[in-house]
Structures are given as C-alpha cells and as structure tokens.
Amino acid sequence: MHQDGLKCIELCYKCAAMCDFCAASCLKEDNPARMTDCIRLAVQCAGICRLSAQFMSLDSDYFKQTCRICVDICKACAEECAKHQSDHCQRCAKICRNCANACLRMVA
Amino acid sequence: MHQDGLKCIELCYKCAAMCDFCAASCLKEDNPARMTDCIRLAVQCAGICRLSAQFMSLDSDYFKQTCRICVDICKACAEECAKHQSDHCQRCAKICRNCANACLRMVA
Amino acid sequence: MHQDGLKCIELCYKCAAMCDFCAASCLKEDNPARMTDCIRLAVQCAGICRLSAQFMSLDSDYFKQTCRICVDICKACAEECAKHQSDHCQRCAKICRNCANACLRMVA
Amino acid sequence: MHQDGLKCIELCYKCAAMCDFCAASCLKEDNPARMTDCIRLAVQCAGICRLSAQFMSLDSDYFKQTCRICVDICKACAEECAKHQSDHCQRCAKICRNCANACLRMVA
C-alpha cells in the first residue's frame, strides 16, 4: 500500500474514533434534542470510515467506491458538528474534514 | 421502513452470513489456492452487506450509495462462486444474486 | 454449522436490525433526552450482535466469548427498552430477549 | 477518555489495519495453503479490534469484555504470524503483541 493509502487508512480510523466519541458525548449533553442530527451522522460516519479503512487495507477493487461515500458523509458530519460549540463537536468537525480530504485524494 | 427495505435488510444479512461461511469453508478445502479470489470477494461482500443493512435500518440518507456498492460486490462474488462446484460456493452464488437484486430495487 | 448456530446467527442479525431501527427512531422522538440510555445500548447491541453473527458464521474458536457479551448487552438493552411504551422499543425489547436466549444456548 | 484508552483505541485500529493487510497478502502468496490459519485469525482479529476500539470510543460499560477477547485473539494471531518469515506476517505479529498488551492494561 502506497503512502497516500496508509495515511488515509489512519485518518479513517481516527475519524471513526472521534465520531463514536462525539456521538457518545452528544448523548450526555444537557439538551440532546439539539444534537440528534449530529449523533445520527456521527454513527454513520464511524461505520463508513471503518469499512473504507478495511477495504483499503484489504487492497480491495472497491475501495474508491467506499471512499467516495466516506467523502460525502464526512463532509455532512463536519458541517453539522461545526454548528455546535462543544469541544468534541469542534474537534470532530476538523477530523471529519481531514478524512474527507484524504478520501478525496484516494478517489482522484 | 417499507416492505422492500425490510426484505433487503434481511437478504443483506443472510448474504453476509453465507459469505462468511463460504470464506471459512474455502479456507478448509484441500486446495485453497484455487479459492483465493472467492475468499477475498466473500470477505468484502460480508462487510458491505452488513454496512448496507445497518444504513437501511438506520434510515440513513446514504443507503442508496451503500446498496449500489453492494450490488457490484454481490454480483462479482456470485460470478466467482458460481465457478466452483462445492455446495457452499453454489449456495453463496445464489444468495449473492438474490441480495444484488434486492439492493438493485432499493437504488431504483 | 448445526441448527442452533444457524438460528442464533439469524436472531443476532435480526436483533442488530431492530436495534439500529430503534436507535434511529428514538432520535426522532419528541423528547430524545428520555431515550439516551436506550440509544446508547441499542448502538452497542447492534455492534456486538453483528460481530457474534460473523464469528459464528466463520466457525471461529472465539464465538462463545462474543456470544457471552451478546447475552449481557441484549439483556441490558431489553431491560431499558421495556421501560418505554413506543412500538419500536417494545418490539426491540422482545427481539433482544430472544437473541439473548439463543446466545445463551450457544455458550452452554 | 484517559490517556491509556486513547492509546489502546489507536493500537486496536492499527492492529485491524495490519491484520487486514496481512490476510490479503497471505492470499496472494505462492502457497496460500500454508497460510490458512493466519488468514482465519487475522480476519477475526481485525473484527474484534474494530469493535473494541468502537466500544472504548463510545465509553461503553462493556469495553473490558471486548478488550479481553481482543487480548486472546491478538495473542493467537501473533503466535501464528510469528511462524512465517514474510515481512507482513512478522510486522503483524509485532503489532498484535502491542495491541494485546494495551488491551491487557485496559482490563486490569
């Protein structure tokens, strides 16, 4: 696996970890009703990030297709997280954007 | 979730179970060297089937995108499995085709 | 895979589908703050159910260990869901109990 | 999440990536029949590593139970990989041992 692939796998798993943590943290907030879109997207983002990382690691013929979805969901999750001021949401937004960029390079 | 969605979720998980079983069975055969393409595809097929089922169950905005990949990998796995005479490969080919058809209806 | 194993795989995936649906439905309710424990447990329950089903399908040496965790999380999720009157929670509670029982038979 | 947890999540995902890569590489070798135990264990190891990382990130009440299985499978995978001279197996053995040690600290 070349350098871009290794970096993208690392960022996908980092993003999965941050999204799971963000979803769990949103559920603990005083007003989780404000965070439902964030939770929903973070759970899905963690799922597609893990599968994309797995497909890249397996050197699958289909990794570009999973990375393409990863770009879309990471961007949507970053946009939603960026609206919230909590530290976990702000950090999640940043990592989602990094992951989206790395996946975009993979599908180019 | 409407009727087609429920049926597709069920078929995706059925396909995941059969693909995992097929991969494990191929590894136990006398000549696993003949089965490497089958194992590789079955592992990936199980992975995308599980994610597509999860995304449909979550009523995700992205389920059509995962189902589209599911169609491609299920078809490729069915084609490869169909070449082999073992019972597990023949059954796997059939279930993969059913799953591909169900996913195709979801993306229509 | 003998009959009990096949039944358990089917129930684990059925439970995963119901838990994902229940979590997504809880997030759409008027007062999601009441449902946070339910959402948290349902997400984890879906995850361990999928892994246990995968390990049984793979005929893994470790399926009893994953099934044991599945029993614990399914029971906890059933207990939490049973507290809520919505249709999705009541159905989820029932399916979680069925899955816990099936996993219990596998570890016996 | 405290420092040990973050480190363990990182190592679990690193191990998942290495195990997937090792399984795919074993399937490409001249004599995959020699590598079937390795492939089987690596696929399972990647699965439990991903779930353990997810459970730790979610701050789940059940992460010690998944980490305990992770210790067992990582050790078994490391032992099997260590028997083979290929670079991917040797690196996989090392990362599996690191991951087992990190998970062991989590369950202590």
Automatic annotation (TrEMBL), chains A, B, C, D:
InterPro entries: Csp_YhjQ, YHJQ-like. It comes from the Bacteria. Gene3D superfamilies: 1.20.1270.360. Pfam families: Csp. This is Four-helix bundle copper-binding protein.
